[in-house]
Write a structure and sequence with these properties.
Layout lengths: L3 E3 L5 H12 L4 E5 L6 H5 L3 E4 L5 H15 L4 E4 L14 H29 L2 E6 L12 H21 L4 E8 L9 H4 L9 H16 L8 H13 L6 E4 L8
Parallel strand pairs: 1-2, 1-4, 2-3, 4-5, 5-6, 6-7
Helix pairs in contact: 1-8, 3-4, 4-5
The structure holds NADPH dihydro-nicotinamide-adenine-dinucleotide phosphate.
Length: about 250
């Protein structure tokens, strides 16, 4: 459903998704905190805008720019997000809050901002990047998992509220994906010496092995992007799309 507004397009899944949608001829508004990171997408035919999902002025300006041209956002892809690892006992509350600002409150506000025009148009779609980490507990990633768990519930609840207005709400649920994000989950873990030092070391090595040495369940950003293209273009999208998630791990 066009036009498509995507957050977090400087790299990884967001960039691959913008590219894949533009290559199919869709009108794509690719956004990122650093506009210069979008030059290649502009060359590929995307419209580009600065957007920091934690900044209210920036959020409003981006949505207004798209609506000024098209009336309403056709599909919002809530993709921007990051993870900072650490055992629950040691994580700093401010770091957890920051993850919630980006991974939960940012997408929540983006939904609130695009919905009035979508309702008025009687059509719209919101595709949100959840994660397998929002479905299962992961040692060393509780804070990130909490944000994705919250995001999954936000999308599932919102779906019931806005269906009556012709707005679809879709969840993407990837397992590990080989992006900038990959492997940084534990490298950004605060390096304190203490009872979890060995655990941190072992977890980091496991993550490195999982992402860098390859595993049949690790996806490429292009694989996830292809699935987002389906979520955006399907006449009747599924409520959730999983990729690279081993069924035996699911609740
Ligand atoms: P990347 O790190 O490659 O991409 C993350 C994107 O989010 C970057 O463009 C980054 O921009 C952007 N971003 C971060 N904070 C903000 C902000 N405040 N405002 C706007 N953009 C922001 O990782 P991925 O492509 O892997 O991540 C994309 C999404 O996929 C995330 O939501 C992630 O949680 C999710 N995901 C990733 C998985 C994986 O294993 N890689 C697995 C499951 C889900 P900048 O360059 O400015 O930092």
């Amino acid at each position: 459903m066009e036009p498509v507004l995507i957050t977090g397009c400087s790299s990884g899944i967001g960039r691959a998704t913008a590219l894949a949608l533009a290559q199919r001829g869709l009108t794509v508004w690719a956004t990122a905190r650093r506009p210069e990171s979008l030059d290649a997408l502009a060359d590929a035919g995307c419209r580009v805008l600065p957007l920091d999902v934690t900044d209210e002025q920036s959020r409003i300006a981006a949505v207004e720019a798209v609506e000024a041209e098209h009336g309403s956002v056709g599909t919002l892809v809530n993709n921007a997000g990051y993870a900072q690892g650490g055992p629950l006992e040691e994580v700093r509350l401010d770091d957890v809050r920051r993850q919630f600002e980006t991974n939960v409150f940012g997408p929540l506000r983006m939904c609130q901002l695009v919905l009035p025009a979508m309702r008025a148009a009687g059509r719209g779609r919101i595709v949100t990047m959840g994660s397998a980490a929002g479905l299962i507990g992961t040692p060393g990633a509780s804070a990130y998992g909490m944000t994705k768990w919250a995001l999954e519930n936000m999308a599932d609840s919102l779906r019931y509220e806005v269906r009556r207005f012709g707005v679809d709400v879709v969840l993407m649920e990837p397992g590990g994906v080989l992006t900038n994000f990959a492997g940084t989950e534990t490298s950004t873990w605060p390096a304190t010496d203490g009872p979890y030092t060995a655990f941190r070391h072992n977890t980091h090595k496991q993550m490195e092995r999982f992402f860098r040495e390859g595993s049949r369940v690790v996806s490429k950003p292009e694989d996830v992007a292809a699935l987002v293209v389906r979520a955006v273009t399907a006449r009747r999208p599924r409520t959730r799309y999983k990729i690279g998630v081993a069924p035996r791990l699911m609740p």
